[in-house]
Amino acid sequence: MVAKKTSKVSKLLRSPRHSTFLLAYKAWLVRFLIMLAVVIVAAVVYLDITIRNQFEGGNWAIPAHVYTRPLDLYVGLTIAESSVLDELGELGYRFQIGATEPGTYENSGGSLTIHVREFQFWDELRLSGRVRIGFNPTKTKIVSVTSTSEKLDLFQLEGRLFGSVSSISHEDRELLTWDQIPEGLVTALIAIEDRNFFSHWGVSPIGILRAAIANIVQGRVVQGGSTLTQQLVKNYYLTAERTISRKVVELVMAVLLEMHYSKQELLVAYINEVYLGQAGNRAIHGFGLGSQFLFGRPLQELNGAELATLAGLVKGPSHYNPLKHPERALERRNIVLRVMQREGILNEVQTGQLQQLPLGTGRSVSIQRRSYPDFLDLVRNQLGNDFKDAALFDAGLRVYTTLNPRIQNVVETVISDRLSQIEKSRGIQAGSLEAAAIVLRADNGEVVALAGGRDRGFAGYNRALDAIRPVGSLLKPFVYLSALEQPSAYGLGSLIADKSITVSQKGSEDWIPQNYNGEEHGFVMLMDGLKHSYNLATVNLGMEVGLDTFGDLLKRFKYDHEGPLYPSALLGAVPMTVSEVADLYLTLANSGFKTPTKSVRSVLSDGGEPLGRYPLSIEQVAQPESIALIVYAMQQVVLDGTARAIGDRFGRAPGYAGKTGTSDGYRDSWYAGFSGDYLMVVWVGRDDNESTGLSGASGAAHIWSDTFANISTRPLTLTLLPDLTFIPVNPVTGMKIDASCLNAVTLPYIASYEPASQSGCAAGTSNRNINNTDGTQKKTNKRRGVDEWLKGIFK
Amino acid sequence: MAQGYIQISKSFNLLDQKKMIGFARIFLVASTFLLQACVGTQIQGEEVVIDGLTIGGGQQSVNTQTAPAISSLLDQSQEEVNAGNLDEGARVLERALRIEPSNPEIWHRMAQIKFSQTDYAQAVVTASRSNTFVDNNSQLRALNLSIMLESYKAQGDSVQVGRVRAQIDNIQQP
Q1: Which one of A122, A444, A620 makes the best mutation probe of the B interface by having the most chain B beta carbons within 10 Å?
Q2: pLDDT grade, residue B155 (50/70/90)?
Q3: Of A90, B80, B106, B158, which residue is least crowded by CB atoms under 10 Å?
């Protein structure tokens, strides 16, 4: 049968017709094989070029990493030891007796020893080492700062990496070099993921076979069988699709990688590339950032159990996420530890000890994961203005910001707690109120905290930057200031009419403003008009001074409005964002010196080279004396006016100045105020713009005062400028009277612009009509003592 | 949000030596004065003349309440200035101002640096800021006014020159 068949084939082959066919077939086959070989070779060469280009060409897009402000510690600084401990906690420093390792501290008695980590500051690479901070007996003030070798005048605690800014990619990572990778991570990783890593050449046939059998037995994919090199290829070059052709490409690439690069280089790449989880829309890649994200500490400071947790995470970053599924993560970690024992890396005792350790990613480190997305929006805006080349965002810049996490945390907590409390006490639907706030350093415009809503850590609609709302009475100080800038015509004691006024406007109906309570108060001192936020007094004054004058002042102070202002602008019918209001108030808080607000101090390159910084820049837009007068009046707002609840809360100390604001129909509740060092603007309202029923005093002012009650701040003290003088004034006539008069109100005036004198103490006559003489007279006995004491505000 | 962002090049070529010599008189006199002031010494008997304004000539006590951290930063700033790194000197002063924003001496030094950088607008405004923190220390006030005077002169602003000169005269004859 076989012979027969053979002879048949031979015949066929021998026949001329078939021999031609065969020759053609052979030629075609040869050509095909050559072409196939060419295609394969070309493909391999292409893959080879691809992997080498990417592998060697500075391949990772690394977002700009954003840091909180450093904390200056120096002799004489008033700071509670607990605040420094909070700061250390956020930086992931751990208590350790003797503070022998970087990233640890020890506090005992009145002294705190910190073993600081190495950190790249703008001007220097600070090496790791120990610093001892001595506190006074009440632990509220620093009395000494010493390093191991010398006495220091001041010392900086580094900022924390809290977020990143990138152009398009949402991948984030912190690159590690071989020296920075702990051996414990490498051994754990190899034991659990690829125990033949050091002996195979990119693929492991035995591993594939073992996985295939396991998968067949189970009837589903239970094992990957991929080597670390294959995983690297998959993560690095390929998509997640599961096809045969992709698998082939993966195998080829893995072998090529192994041909070109050492095991060490491949491991470093793997450790920097691997995906380890998601934080919002930010994908956490690499063990460097993974360690920061999960444990709040650098990889080098993790113990063996924590490294095993990270190694175990590779198999399923979301399934074994220690934050969401701590039980699974713990079980997985213990499997890794047992495998390490089986491989002879750990002995039984060590394994037992490590398995006893807690996961270490619990609530206590949650603060180290805080990302302050609202503040990041501000950083993104500022950088976007100056770094036009988007590629820079992916070049691993180090961005040093002005964010003070101590204050930021207070603001976030206060907003959340206070809104809930207001909703509860006033029967407002829970969750319907929203708020936004910004806190700045009054002296240099650095933004130290920003909240764009009540949900902390939630990246969404940023109301502090984007919600534009009518500001109500927040503009009144500027109306009064535009008058006080004409000292020959106006002083704080000048009488202004709190009486009805009808303002005619071309092309629209007459405007007839009213006071909040519908009452008129006759002639009042200019200071009292602001103190009690009288609408009629403000409109009368504003119209007298002129809308153009008022508009020019706003422009000088920063508010760029287009076209002429309407009279209703005097009462704040002008929509602004929280941060725009802060710009305006910053100049008030800074004695008439305007400075740009900023959230970034400086930017360094990936290699620690200074790229650029934002130097202090100021501009004088008002005379300090005029500002001192309006700030004095704003202090009265807090002590005895619409924000007196704040004055009462702080023991009627004169250290704060501010102004409440309420928009029509109680839709927006505002408060803007400052101490000696911080300015804060707060808005409370609803996203649907419905009424909240809250005035500035009953809403936003509470958030302001809760914040200032919980942060360390200096009281506002006004320097007695040489051109300022105190004059006793009759509040009814607005004229200078003898200081011994019981009804005298002592007010600051610009020297050489004192009010005219009257004889005697009585109300007497003035150029204005006098109302309510008796009422005023009764008040003044009580007030005189207060005035004397107020005079002491000025130092 | 307008920002005064500055790009840093590796070589800090911010100091024009020729101009520096031109401004040497006021700058050096003021620096000497302030250096002494900041270490809290008492200036004895020496008479210093800045643009017709006579300061000193008697025993004058100046501010002695400078914290060690501030002294240290002022020294560090001065070292940078001496090395020609004016921008770095200003940066160190900014750090000092974060610690003591109301310290008129730091503001005055900032004015000196801005003047040396021929940034006259900032020299005037920082000197003016310094003056808002000076109580009755007419010495520092006079030094600030002299920086303002020289800046306005350099800008060719005769109106402001006249105004500031009048202020200086007022200090001389209280």
Answers
A1: A620
A2: very high
A3: B158
Residues in B closer than 8 angstroms to A722, CB to CB, are 136
Q: What residues in B contact A154, CB-CB < 8 Å?
A: 68-69, 72-73, 99
More confident residue, A699 or A781: A699
Q: What is the mean pLDDT of chain B?
A: 72
Q: What is the pLDDT of residues A47-76, one digit of tens each?
A: 888 878 777 755 677 888 999 999 999 999
> Is A616 near chain B, with CB under 8 Å?
yes
Q: Indicate the pairing of strand A282-285 with strand A171-173.
A: parallel
Instruction: Supply the pLDDT for residue A8.
Output: 52
Which residues of A belong to the active site? 193, 473
Distance in angstroms (rounded) separating the CA atoms of residues A246 and A696: 63
Residue type, A237: Y
pLDDT of residue A236: 76
Res. A18 pLDDT band, cuts 50 70 90: low
In this prediction, residue B101 carries a pLDDT of 93
Asked if the model's pLDDT at residue A784 lies above 90, the reply is no
Which of A381, A593, A719 has the CB atom closest to B1's CB atom?
A: A381
CA nearest to B167, candidates A618, A718, A722: A722
pLDDT given for residue A173 in this prediction: 86
| Cross-chain residue pair A719–B101, CB shorter than 8 Å | no
Predicted-complex ipTM score: 0.82
* Cβ contacts of B163 on chain A, cutoff 8 Å: none
Side-chain-facing half-sphere of A461: CA atoms under 13 Å = 12
CATH class (in words) of the domain with range A64-162: alpha beta
Tokens 């080492």 map to which residue?
A129
Count helices and strands (H / E) in chain B.
8, 5
Amino acid at B25: R
Look at strands B60-61 and B42-43 and give their pairing. antiparallel
What confidence score (pLDDT) does residue A450 get?
97
A258 touches chain B (CB under 8 A): no
Segment (H or E) for A286:
helix A286-295
Where in chain A are the domains? 2-56, 64-162, 170-361, 447-599+612-710, 724-791
Assign a CATH topology to domain A170-361.
Penicillin binding protein transpeptidase fold (1.10.3810)
Angle subtended by helix axes B138-155 and B24-38, to nearest 10: 160
Interface of A with B in 380-419 (CB under 8 A): 381-382, 385-386
Instruction: Give bridge partners of residue A161 from the DSSP assignment.
Output: A67
Chain B residues near residue A609 by CB distance under 8 angstroms: 10
Which fold is adopted by the domain A447-599+612-710? Beta-lactamase (3.40.710)
Q: What CA dihedral angle connects B5, B8, B12 and B13, to 10 degrees?
A: -70
DSSP state of A93: -
Phi, psi of A150 (to 5 degrees): -150, 165
> What's the pLDDT at A339?
93
Contact (CB<8Å) A385/B125: no
A94: three-class secondary structure by DSSP: strand
Neighbouring residues of A233: CB distance < 8 A, sequence distance ≥ 6: A51, A250, A253, A254, A257
Q: How far apart are CA A593 and CA A123, in angstroms?
A: 28
Which residue is closest to A465 within chain B, CA to CA?
B1
Length of chain A: 795
Set out the domains of chain B in order of their start, with CATH numbers. 18-35+46-53+67-172 (1.25.40.10)
Q: What is the pLDDT of residue B23?
A: 44
Mean pLDDT, to the nearest integer, of A179-207? Answer: 90
pLDDT digit string (tens) for A573-616?
Answer: 899 999 999 999 999 999 999 999 999 999 998 888 888 889 99
* pLDDT over threshold 50, residue A38: yes
Tokens of A509: 């109906």
pLDDT at A367: 66
